[in-house]
Amino acid sequence: MRPIDPARSRVVLIGTPAYHATDELTDVPQVGNNVADLVRLLTDPRLAGFPTENCVVVPPNADLGVVGERLIPAAAAASDTLLVYYAGHGVLGRRGELYLGLFGTRTDRLPFTALPFDAIRDVCLDSPAANRVVILDCCYSGRATGEALSDVDGQVLGQITVSGSYTLTASPANRVAKVLDGEPYTAFTGRLLTLLERGLPGGGELLTLGDVYRHLRTTLQGEGLSVPEQRGTGTADLLGLVRNVAYRPGSVAPGGTPVVTGAARLYEREREAIAVGEHGAPSEAVRLLRNLLIDRERINGAEDAATLRTKYLLGVWTGRGGERTRAVELLREVLADQQRILPAGNRDLLLTRAYLAQNIGQAGNQPEARQRLTAVHDDQVRVLGARHEDTLQTRFLLACNCDPEAARHQLVDLLPDLERELGPMHALTLDAYGQLAFATGSAGDAAESRRRYETLIPMVTQRYGAEHPYTIRARHQHARQVKADDRVDAEHLLAAVVDDAGRALGADHTVTLDARLDHAMAADSADEQLRRLDSLGRDQLRLLGADHPGLMYTRRMQVAVLSDGPHHQEAYRLCRDVLADHARVLGPYHRHTMFMREMHAAKAYDAGAHPEAIRLRRELLTDQRRVLGPEHPDTVKSQQWLARHDKKG
User: Fold this and answer.
1) Which of 190, 220, 381, 606 to pair with 538, CA 20 to 30 A apart?
2) 98-100 and 90-92: which strand pairing?
3) Residue by residue, what is the 3-state secondary structure of 376-415?
4) Distances (CA, A) of 39 to 22, 52, 58, 166
5) Main-chain dihedrals φ then ψ at residue 84, nearest 5 degrees
6) What predicted TM-score, i.e. pTM, was given to this entire model?
7) Digit-coded pLDDT (tens) for 339-386
8) CB of 592 within 8 A of CB of 548?
9) Residue 267 to residues 260, 264, 289, Cα–Cα distance (Å)
10) CA distance linking residue 628 with residue 486, whole number of Å
11) What distance lies between CA 75 and its chain's CA centroid?
């Protein structure tokens, strides 16, 4: 749950109570009351506290040009939240495209007299706002009869989903939005205003978008009215719209976790866990999700769709916390249950397949991951469409499981689609920018990688803030690329990253620990590198445990530093011990284990154990050909090493 920052946010309210150019669209005078009272409540210091100048009201007789003059500057000025509200008639064009009615709208000249919903979509995508919210209190056709605004066609559902944003609509695509006799507002907005003004007993300190949706759905359904629908991504529904005036401290458990009083509270706990993970604490997210899963299974049952989703999220965040093998086990279990219960094209099932594949790749089997992700992508294109956010995300995961050069090409192709469909500031788009910068550096082009990180850092700072783990991690990766040309400058940059991470996130945070590793490797002497690595390793052992991937990476770096010096026997012994742990924890064919096997053979040769080194290389080559393929660079490297030895022999 997080509040809106009113000073860095903008609200744009568009209401059309009257239509003078056509008899096909009936006047809805209640819309004027909707807008006036929303302004009153949103600018109330007790509730949302938006400055009056940040709450933009489009005149009721505005034409398309005037709407643009008010909407575009407001969207450009919003850095925290952009909220766009529309009330009036929606109209479908000849090809099913959605238009929002204006004072001068003519149904026979929609492109010139009505507001295309695509225009709102584009403005939202172009806005630098971290959170984008669209609320529609309207129908989706101009053939209004009686007191109902009108019926709609199912084809509009895809249009009202603004990728990377939260959309709340007054009614589903096959129902009508009501205006009741004697009421001063439309049914949906009237009940929204009541909720904002009176609050939600038993709720938290803030009324989140999720709270608003669930309360309105229950209220409207109980009155026999059309129920609203929400569409959103990530944790958008945890955004606090206004303060909850009915909040009482006793209604929330210590630590800020809502008391479990039903399905809504379980859902809130799920979203809170995701928010914790997204702020760089995957292990805490896993703890919260484990506790939630216990309650889900007790209340909903083990095979309930919500229970399976919680178990899926537990698998996802277990993987993001570094426990890839355990994540694969969890996601396989979830997938087996989903395949038994859900239809093959179910979105949750497709997501589970994608993240199972991703964790299989992270656990070391990238060929299998690519094969699985390709199959998921094909199914998502068929079920959801090529432009759907899930489909685009699977393309991103595919790129992450390729070698650096292939990843560069795929990400260069993907980014224009992400920018067009989700916007340049969407989390997935920024992830792709970051992955492209990383892949560019891994492919050997440090200068281009630095330039990409220098472009990315201001973007993530604007999106997340200077002290967010993602921003600090981007600075860390930039410093790594600087090290390729200027070790001294890189050491200064990394020292600043370590200090800032420790101050903002804590000395024990994984982002801080990761930065300490590269700071250690930037030291100007092997002795200082080993001293810093030893200190880091002790902290990782205490905080993460002996089998954590972070500690294993630190130990690999200790082997690498020792290998560059005269201590061949010591490097050989340490390499053997580290390899044994890698094989035990990750398996013999994980890419990190294969790397350690190659290093083990090299250290054996340096230590004078030549026959042992040759035997190890031959065993490694056999597995590389089978697991990586004969053309893989590591396979070729082993072949060349053995060929040189055979020639010497």
Assistant:
1) 606
2) antiparallel
3) HHHHHHHHCCCCCHHHHHHHHHHHHCCCHHHHHHHHHHHH
4) 29, 8, 12, 20
5) -115, 125
6) 0.62
7) 988 888 888 899 999 999 999 998 878 899 999 999 999 999 998 888
8) no
9) 10, 5, 11
10) 34
11) 22
